[in-house]
Amino acid sequence: QVQVVESGGGLVQxxxxxxxxxxxxxxxxxxxxxGWFRQAPGKEREGVSCINWYGSSAYYAESVRGRFTIxxxxxxxxxxxxxxxxxxxxxxxxxCAPCRAPYSELQGKSGWGYWGQGTQVTVSS
Length: 125
Prior knowledge:
There is one protein chain. This protein has 125 residues and is mainly β. Helices cover 0% and strands 49% of the residues. The chain is built from no helices and 11 strands. Strands 2, 4, 5, 6, 9, 10 and 11 form a 7-stranded mixed β-sheet that branches. Strands 1-3-8-7 form a 4-stranded antiparallel β-sheet, with no helix packed on it. A hairpin with a 6-residue loop joins strand 9 (92-100) and strand 10 (107-108). The protein is globular, with a radius of gyration of 13 Å.
């Protein structure tokens, strides 16, 4: 059974930092490009960042490029998102999931049905 658990969110002031983590079980983690997605209230879910299976290539949404860094540890089946210089517009629920090619488009894997509970990030102004 596939399980995805996101953690590390919280309340932070603008300009602050957070590091999100995602752990998975029940899937061969290093078979997948993985990514972070977020959904703010009243908005569609959007791709934030994707990283290839080996961790050698990463892609970012224009809104977070230069502030966020995605990384993965295949030995621990873990995905991270280091978020710096946070802005109020980064406030959202953050989820991790596999990405589909081309990874630069920051789209989730088609038919992925194992979304986790997410972790809430709230940035105050």
